[in-house]
Design goal:
Blueprint: H1 2-8, H2 29-39, E1 46-50, E2 53-54, H3 61-64, E3 73-76
Antiparallel strand pairs: 1-2, 1-3
Protein name: Ubiquitin-like domain-containing protein
Organism: Polarella glacialis
Pfam family, one: Rad60-SLD
Length: about 80
Amino acid sequence: MAEDAAAAQHIQLKAVEVQFKIKKSTPLRKLMDAYCSRLGLQASQVRFMVDGERIAADDTAEKLGLEDEDLIDVAMEQTGGNL
């Protein structure tokens, strides 16, 4: 029983890091589509965010003030969850 309780306190997580090189003036829709294609996802299944704010498809790196090595967070879209 003690082993089961200890095992329940640990989880294993995996993250996918994909790098893209784009012009600052390129709409981020191109990056979003490439990311989804590479991972076999539908664009409607994921949310792209910078500093917790959702990215619009027509946003550009320049418009968002993104620099080299900045990160864009990608999360699975969730609906519902309210009981």
